[in-house]
Give the backbone structure.
Amino acid sequence: MVLMTCIASLLLPLKLHHRIANDYALTSWRVLVLLNLLPGLFGIVSLWLLPESPKYYLAVDEQQKAMEALERCCRLNKGRDVTLSSLGVESVTQPRLPEKKIHRR
């Protein structure tokens, strides 16, 4: 929020007015709105590209995908040559899961 007010205090006094079409002009407040849109777009793209969490995979009873997600995290944190099996992890479970299985449609 502080960054938005700083950018607004720099942009709004500039009196930008670039005509794009007959009745449409690119003004300083429209540039400000476009700049404020960028963090949201970055957040949406990053959430789309990030993998699901191992906890989610365990909740929907997909242990293999949970192990693959944990393997990816292990390699990022410990280095490319370290695997879960080299650390002694062969399987994972989630404590306190409800007895009733989640049925996806």
